[in-house]
Amino acid sequence: MVGDVRQSVFDTNPEDPNLKKYRGVAMLQWFALYEKTGLLDVSHKVETWRANQAIADFSDKLFPAEFTFASTRSRQDATTGHDGMFAITAADVPSYVRQFEAQPLRESKAIARSSDLPFRNFGKVKGLTFDRVLIYPTDPITKYLTDGTELKPKTACGLYVAVTRAKHSVAFVVPNPTATRLTPWSASP
């Protein structure tokens, strides 16, 4: 079996009363339990061929240290002149999309309802690759970007999927880009 528990955006049977404590990212604990019995051998792959190192580093930090994920090493070394993690204002979105052709992503259709961008939801882009993504964050994600407030596991998994779809850059639409830990971007006057 091959998988990345950080991409646990759906439960196959959320009503199943068995093993509730091992759902989502907590599956790691279940794997470790069975590995100790000798019934399972867990090996970790820590390389990505899709995302650049800045994106890999950001995505590695989405989960609390207690999950003990190894750092990801990027094998994708292409540079484009606009690479990494960015924050932009809503006013700059039209220019950003026009200039970089970023794929707009959101957690659900409840986010950025008034926008006419061709959104895809986080859970629907698993397995896809885009050169760049533009993310409209939820309030908890915006808090994470500004002050590092820990994300709930399901939110972290969805954001992990969204961020790791990009090869070159990820931009978040936030009220105040300079308040984040990301590189602010604005349209040239």
TrEMBL record:
Gene3D superfamilies assigned: P-loop containing nucleotide triphosphate hydrolases
Superkingdom, natural source: Bacteria
SUPFAM superfamilies in the record: P-loop containing nucleoside triphosphate hydrolases
InterPro entries: P-loop_NTPase (IPR027417)
Protein's UniProt name: UvrD-like helicase C-terminal domain-containing protein
